[in-house]
């Protein structure tokens, strides 16, 4: 039985990855802040360990086949790059260094699609596309890219596989995290939507991709885990169809988003935390589109419709009275 360690175990992707690993006969050590935060199924092959990822974890890495590093600082309201770098870069390097020392075969790093260049309605970004504005100004995306570059440059005895998922939707989004976008439209009489678009993917498919990476991922390669390229307007229309609602839909002018970005930059200079920033507001105006061809060809992925991802997320939120 293959033995793996998973960080970020209680998040949306971490929970789905662990469930997928258990279903496929893996023994999993899940690193968590608190054991009580685990909301998935219990299993004799799952061991929850409360751990500080910046500490020495080498004792946990004995006779280990693989580390799947998902834990990250994803909040968009942090002000300084160091706040992102400490978690997304320094913790990653600490874990990877220990993996090398302990002779672990594979280190799988979950990054973000925004370290790669996006496309538009005419063509989609891929794993070879260089990062583009506005994400070159995203502190989160920059910290992830710095970690990617280090792992690819300094890998020696441990294989490195990098995953670049797009916007994930699905069950076990307990905070919620990316699922907040559903509440933007669900049970609303009026929906204000930005004019851009992005790539949406079922979190179960991302988890399947990570499992495929354990078994088939090639050393030194990046894999976009992506599915449907659609506008925000069309995404919200999907929510409307699934939930049988018929709200008024109003486009947000790009000029208003730019103005909000300027306000955000001013607040940030005053050291006030806010989700508003010039780069975040610009990201809502572009078609942030990607291709999944490499993951289909090399990892054998078959992606589910985004409608199914929305349905699963809403059912989970309903069942758990998530607001």
Strand and helix layout:
Layout: E1 3-6, H1 12-23, E2 27-32, E3 46-50, E4 66-69, H2 81-101, E5 106-110, H3 139-154, E6 159-165, E7 167-169, H4 180-183, E8 190-193, E9 197-202, H5 203-216, E10 221-225, E11 228-231, H6 232-243, E12 248-251, H7 254-269, H8 278-283, E13 287-288, H9 293-299, H10 306-319
Parallel strand pairs: 1-2, 1-4, 2-3, 4-5, 5-6, 6-10, 7-9, 8-12, 9-13
Antiparallel strand pairs: 9-11
Largest sheet: 7 strands, parallel
User: pLDDT under 50 segments (min length 5)?
Assistant: none
Summarize model confidence as the mean pLDDT.
95
The name of the CATH superfamily reads: NAD(P)-binding Rossmann-like Domain
Q: How are the strands ordered across the major sheet?
A: 3-2-1-4-5-6-10
The best one-word shape is globular
The topology string of helices and strands comes to EHEEEHEHEEHEEHEEHEHHEHH
Q: In the residues, how many domains can be counted?
A: 1
Q: How big a fraction of the residues is strand?
A: 15-25%
Which fold name is given in CATH as the topology?
Answer: Rossmann fold
**CATH class placement:** Alpha Beta
Assigned CATH architecture: 3-Layer(aba) Sandwich
Organism: Chryseobacterium sediminis
Pfam families: Epimerase
Domain NAD-dependent epimerase/dehydratase: 4-224
Protein name: Nucleoside-diphosphate-sugar epimerase
